[in-house]
Amino acid sequence: MCAVLFSAISTGCGNKTEEKVEKKEENKQENTGEVKKGNDPVQESMTKKEENAGSNQQSDANKSNELGMTPGLPSDFPSDVPLPKNSKTLGSLNSSDGTVVTFESNDKVLDIVNFYKEELQKNGYAVTKEGESQVSDKGGLINWVKEKKEVGLMLGFDKDKNITSLVITYK
Fold this sequence. Notes:
This protein is of the alpha+beta class. It has helices at residues 2-32, 41-66, 109-122; strands spanning 87-95, 98-105, 126-136, 139-146, 149-158, 163-170.
């Protein structure tokens, strides 16, 4: 009886092992891009999704353009507002509330805040009544005014990328 039970278990396990080997071979073929005739509908659906992934990436790129972001620094960026050090300009957006320019910097939030406090004060700007809002090493907001010009600075630190994102608004 033990021999019969052992034989049944061995035979059952062998079938499962063969199925696993077949599935691995199918996966290898999918990963290499080979397509077998007679694929089941699930595999065909996966192949179509992978083929469409490239076109989805193109439509995602168009979405950012649909937002109206213009690459680079706008031509009307105030000459009395310095650009952040160690940064790159991601783009700008014009709206009825003013212009928004986004940057990424390798500098820490508080270093950028201190730089702008010093430079904007030298250039005649004063912190508004609202002043600084929750400025810390993780980010914050500061608003300045000079005559009729308003400049805002919003910062946030991404610890995973070790990059500070900053947005300068002006009107």
